[in-house]
């Protein structure tokens, strides 16, 4: 039973992995096709990559996408940390749960609803659709993710740590910057990274609030894909895939190193005292 | 007193909640009571209950159910087998990795894969089945959606399986249960929380898909999401779009109540 079961299990997993990676590999392979279509491989070429790097409009859009992603994740990380600290301060159960539910609304809401409601909101307030509206909505939907990443770290931190710091004469600012923030640093990094990937990945919300003049990569790919196959999209996606893999490796590197280092340093400090 | 003085953290956070959580929902509900000319009306709600919109809603639910069902069917064995492998965290990471690649790119890849002269048709042709229209069918829509959602289904089930105490399985086997009985009476009931949160993570987004319906299903499938996008961005009838959104929000709330709204896991 075991050897036969094992073989079947392996086959099943291999099939799942094959299907999961087939589209990605397919895209990447055809980015080198000189034929110009996604069928019938004619010959190897780098012309689509040259086309990507020669396309200034596309490069500006890539730049826009990264500026939005970095700015929105930085700002939402700050807001999210403040939010997590705020939730921790609330001691009574009822308001605390209400806050948490409100926090999670944007995570469980479908993108279409977020997009449509933000579109109404921005037109009501009178914010012109474009860079500002896209940035604001990316910040808005990233904040709850950061809160969810930071809060567990805050909750596992013992309050005696803060009491000890206060007893030793630390001001509230010192407690925050020298005790609390270093302790929750892994959570902050994880939150920042998640916000970054959410922002880079988002299509639906951006599609609603982007207006005419401004575009991000997802929206641009959508409008190009609607016109049919163009292998410069393949070239672009290969580059993006490599970038994503790098990001993921970076994230795991940070994630696997940080808890250990912070643990060690807090242990060391505790031992010193 | 000290606690009270430190509550200034709440100010920016509550501001965010008010502006981007409460205000948008209120505005959606508010707009659902106005027609294209900006007059107050209940017409949108009356229109929603006409056969056209009801059929669309039912359709949307049917497709979402299909997508959730097939995702679960593929994801549960995958998660189960993953927990049995060596280096399971690495394999899990490899399952999750595609979900971090831009959704648009994966969808675009399927336009090539499923095209008339694409890879799938080439395989079918060599196997002697001939070429078929795969793109712009219900099959391709469900397949691509399941493809997109599988990682979100695998992750919670994998976590639930990992949290399960393995001695329970040994106990069941010791007491004479067969492999299948052990699975049905012990493993599955203990991981039902992972299954429900996975279904929740798939069902609600599946109701509101709109990009895949356009690119892969070629406007043949109209989901609630597609209808909302259509009303907001194409016909500019925000009132009707908002009305559909209200019903989508209600559907979402019901689904969450139904699946018990446990700890919310992240979307991806």
TrEMBL record, chain A:
Main location: membrane
Family: Belongs to the binding-protein-dependent transport system permease family. CysTW subfamily.
Lineage per the UniProt record: Bacteria, Bacillati, Bacillota, Bacilli, Bacillales
Species the sequence originates in: Paenibacillus phyllosphaerae
Bilayer disposition of the protein: Multi-pass membrane protein
UniProt keyword Cell membrane present: yes
Domain of life: Bacteria
Domain ABC transmembrane type-1 residue range list: 62-251
Protein name: Spermidine/putrescine transport system permease protein
Localization (cell): Cell membrane
TrEMBL record, chain B:
Residue ranges constituting the ABC transmembrane type-1 domain according to the UniProt record: 57-259
Entry annotated with the keyword Transport: yes
Topology in membrane: Multi-pass membrane protein
GO cellular component: plasma membrane
GO biological process: transmembrane transport
Domain of life: Bacteria
Primary location group: membrane
Listed transmembrane segments: 12-33, 61-83, 90-119, 139-161, 186-212, 238-258
SUPFAM superfamilies recorded: MetI-like
Keywords noted in UniProt: Cell membrane, Membrane, Transmembrane, Transmembrane helix, Transport
UniProt subcellular location: Cell membrane
Protein family per UniProt: Belongs to the binding-protein-dependent transport system permease family. CysTW subfamily.
The protein's name in its UniProt record: Spermidine/putrescine transport system permease protein
High-level lineage: Bacteria, Bacillati, Bacillota, Bacilli, Bacillales
């Amino acid at each position: 039973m075991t050897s036969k079961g094992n073989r079947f299990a392996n086959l099943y997993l291999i099939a799942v992995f094959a299907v999961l990676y087939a589209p990605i590999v397919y895209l990447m392979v055809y980015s080198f096709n000189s034929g110009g279509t996604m069928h019938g491989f004619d010959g190897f070429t780098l012309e689509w990559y040259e086309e990507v790097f020669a396309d200034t409009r596309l490069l500006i859009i890539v730049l826009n996408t990264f500026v939005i992603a970095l700015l929105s994740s930085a700002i939402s990380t700050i807001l999210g940390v403040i939010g997590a600290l705020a939730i921790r301060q609330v001691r009574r159960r009822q308001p605390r749960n209400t806050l948490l539910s409100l926090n999670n609304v944007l995570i469980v809401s479908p993108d279409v609803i977020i997009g449509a409601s933000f579109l109404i909101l921005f037109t009501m307030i009178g914010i012109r659709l474009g860079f500002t509206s896209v940035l604001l909505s990316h910040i808005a939907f990233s904040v709850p993710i950061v809160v969810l990443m930071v809060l567990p770290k805050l909750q596992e931190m013992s309050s005696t740590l803060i009491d000890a710091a206060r007893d030793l004469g630390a001001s509230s600012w010192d407690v925050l910057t020298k005790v609390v923030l270093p302790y929750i640093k892994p959570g902050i990094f994880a939150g920042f990274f998640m916000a970054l990937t959410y922002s880079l990945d988002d299509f639906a919300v951006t599609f609603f609030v982007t207006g005419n003049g401004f575009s991000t990569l997802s929206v641009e790919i959508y409008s190009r894909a609607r016109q049919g196959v163009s292998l410069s999209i393949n070239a672009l996606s290969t580059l993006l895939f490599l970038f994503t893999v790098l990001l993921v490796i970076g994230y795991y590197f940070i994630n696997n190193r940080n808890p250990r280092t912070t643990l060690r340093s807090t242990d060391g400090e505790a031992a010193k005292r | 007193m000290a606690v009270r003085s430190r509550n200034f953290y709440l100010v920016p956070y509550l501001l965010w909640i008010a502006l981007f959580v409460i205000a948008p929902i209120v505005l959606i509900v508010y707009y659902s009571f106005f027609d294209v000319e900006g007059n107050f009306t209940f017409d949108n709600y009356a229109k929603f209950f006409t056969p056209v919109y009801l059929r669309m809603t039912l359709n949307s639910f049917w497709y979402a159910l299909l997508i959730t069902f097939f995702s679960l069917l593929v994801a549960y064995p995958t998660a189960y087998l993953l927990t049995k492998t060596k280096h399971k965290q690495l394999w899990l990471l490899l399952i999750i990795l595609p979900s971090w690649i831009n959704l648009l790119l994966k969808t675009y890849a399927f336009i090539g894969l499923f095209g008339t002269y694409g890879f799938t048709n080439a395989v079918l042709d060599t196997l002697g089945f001939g070429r078929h229209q795969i793109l712009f069918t219900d099959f391709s829509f469900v397949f691509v959606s399941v493809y997109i959602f599988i990682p979100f289904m695998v992750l919670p089930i994998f976590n639930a399986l990992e949290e399960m105490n393995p001695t329970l399985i040994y106990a069941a086997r010791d007491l004479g249960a067969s492999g299948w009985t052990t699975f049905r009476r012990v493993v599955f009931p203990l991981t039902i929380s992972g299954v429900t949160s996975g279904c929740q993570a798939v069902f609600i987004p599946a109701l509101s898909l709109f990009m895949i319906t356009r690119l892969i299903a070629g406007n043949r499938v109209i989901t609630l999401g597609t209808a909302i996008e259509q009303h907001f961005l194409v016909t500019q009838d925000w009132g009707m779009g908002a009305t559909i959104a209200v019903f989508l929000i209600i559907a979402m709330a019901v689904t969450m109540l139904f699946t018990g709204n446990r700890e919310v896991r992240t979307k991806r």
